[in-house]
Amino acid sequence: MKTSFLALALAASGSLAVTAISAQDQPQIPGVVDVSRVAAGSYSLDPSHTLVSWQVGHFGFNDYFGLFGQIDGTMTLDPADIDATKFDITVPITSVSVPSEGLRDHLLRPGKDGAAPDFFGPEPEAARFVSTSVRRTGETTAVASGMLTMNGQTGPVTMLVEFTGAGQNPMSEAQTVGFHARAQIDRTDWGISYAAPLVDNMVDLEISAAFERD
């Protein structure tokens, strides 16, 4: 019996040792939801890892999705004074990505016989969001309001923002802060009325943003 207990004890200790070694070998995730890691200063968006997704109802059957990428922007941030945060974000419309090449062509198609395009046209100006206020709502959340200029028109947009991580990017070695944000806009407010309301007026936006400290 003593031999059996000894064997079990040795096996258990060996297993714990292997587990400890394996845990030590695991790389540490560089980004952590820890506000104390956020340094005050000026930041620029990482365009390779920042995306804006959009979702719109299609004929009442289901939702359709698309993405914008190569996004440019700046942020000034002080974790001790979140309400003073400023954003200036530019989204190139021509970066739009959808599974259907036919739809992408339609989004960037010129109007027929000199008429206005159904959506953005072949040479659309980039959309731009400039914040006007940021209000902290929790330890890691805030509401950001601002003005969105798109398709030649400007109107207000409010976003729900969540802090998702901070740390040093192991590739660029830049101090990085990440956020997720959600908003909803009525596309007709920006003159994009094609097929409304068969294709829903309301468009859901989700933003995944990584800012690197300058």
Automatic annotation (TrEMBL):
Signal listed as a keyword: yes
Keyword Signal tagged: yes
Keywords: Signal
Signal peptide: 1-20
Protein name from the UniProt record: Polyisoprenoid-binding protein YceI
PANTHER family tied to this protein: PROTEIN YCEI
Residue ranges of domain Lipid/polyisoprenoid-binding YceI-like in the record: 42-212
Originating species: Qipengyuania citrea
One family name in Pfam for this protein: YceI
InterPro entries (alphabetical): Lipid/polyisoprenoid-bd_YceI (IPR007372), TTHA0802/YceI-like_sf (IPR036761)
